[in-house]
Design a protein that fits this description.
With 331 residues, this protein is an alpha+beta fold. 15% of the residues lie in helices and 33% in strands. The protein has 5 helices and 15 strands. A hairpin with a 5-residue loop joins strand 2 and strand 3. The longest helix has 13 residues. The chain is globular, with a radius of gyration of 20 Å. It starts with a helix and ends in a 7-residue tail after the last helix.
Length: 331
């Protein structure tokens, strides 16, 4: 049985994940900036009313989060981006950079008319060569000496609701029957110098794997998945306070600790994967590297636009893997 903190975190994961993973949101237009990125100071003569920053109001939090994740000018699309390095971590040796990771999402918001918004999103992420930035289709696994097929992240759709309360935790196929009390949506805002606001959303999970080892002996890290994701958003205070802006920009970073990727065919070998990425969202896709843009245009063209309507189910990357791939032969 989960304690209240785990219920809260699980609800946050369902609400905030836009992958893993990860829909990774928005950034300062035209600037790819990471954690601790400089934010342009606000104009001292600004007429922005900072009393609009109601950090302890869950309705304000709902709309602030919606403005970060999408656009309250309903129907407009928002482009999200992430890029960084994927590292292997094993006991007794230094962390090993394995490959790059770059991808994007496109989201739109729909007003449900009941105090909640739908976030409709597609996201795709590619593993890349650390030297050239080219998208990898095979990888020489240094831990096993085996050349493996690379499977990108491709979640279509990955939708969720934005509401004044955190959503209920998942049922895990009916295993979790307990209904927790509603938790108001109050996020971890922190004002800082230089007209900056930070938002942190660390999430720590332990849940049944979609790849059970009996069926997926080489892909599965075990019956349960332990995953942590850490998001840090760097936001201009003027933009956040200006309620006339239907969409807010931010920059930031995203990290993820997760078991070995299933296509690495590491099974339950000791160790894990660590993603270390910057993230952002923009009014266009000019931040994308040319190798990733060209590959996505050729193979994943529909991911350059958001879904038009809500569709079920919204599956995780491991669930997609279980549906689309077949178990590797046991050696």
């Amino acid at each position: 049985m989960q304690d209240n903190n785990n219920k809260h975190n699980t609800g946050r994961r369902e609400f905030l994940s836009s992958a893993g993973k990860v829909a990774l949101g928005a950034g300062f237009a035209g600037v790819a900036a990471g954690c601790g990125a400089a934010v342009t100071p606000g104009d001292a003569s600004s007429s922005v009313d900072y009393s609009s920053l109601k950090y302890k109001d869950n309705l304000w939090n709902r709309d602030a989060w919606a403005r970060l994740m999408g656009d309250l000018d309903f129907g407009k699309e928002k482009f999200g981006w992430f890029k960084g390095t994927v590292n292997g971590v094993r006991e007794g040796e230094k962390v090993k950079p394995l490959f790059g990771f770059e991808g994007f999402s496109v989201a739109r918001l729909v007003d449900e008319g009941n105090g909640s918004y739908q976030k409709l999103l597609r996201e795709v992420g590619f593993y890349t060569d650390l030297k050239t930035g080219e998208v990898l289709e095979t990888f020489d696994n240094p831990y096993t000496g085996e050349t493996v097929k690379v499977v990108p992240i491709a979640n279509d759709p990955f939708n969720h609701h934005i509401a004044p309360f955190f959503p209920e935790p998942p049922s895990y196929g009916g295993l979790n029957k307990e209904k927790p009390p509603k938790i108001p949506l109050l996020l971890d805002w922190q004002e800082a110098p230089n007209n900056t606001v930070f938002l942190r959303t660390p999430i720590h999970l332990f849940y049944p794997s979609a790849l059970q080892p009996e069926k997926w002996p080489r892909e599965s890290a075990g019956k349960m998945n332990r995953v942590s994701e850490m998001f840090t958003y760097v936001i201009n205070r003027d933009e956040l306070a200006d309620t006339s802006q239907t969409s807010i920009t931010y920059s930031g970073c995203w990290s993820r600790i997760t078991p070995w990727l299933p296509w690495m065919l590491m099974g339950q070998a000791e160790g894990h994967i660590y993603y270390d990425c910057t993230m952002g969202a923009y009014h266009d896709d000019s931040i994308l590297s040319e190798p990733v843009r060209a590959y996505a245009k050729k193979h994943f063209a529909k991911y350059f636009s958001a879904p038009e309507k809500w569709e079920d189910p919204s599956l995780s990357s491991l669930e997609h893997y279980a549906l689309e791939q077949t178990p590797a032969p046991v050696k």
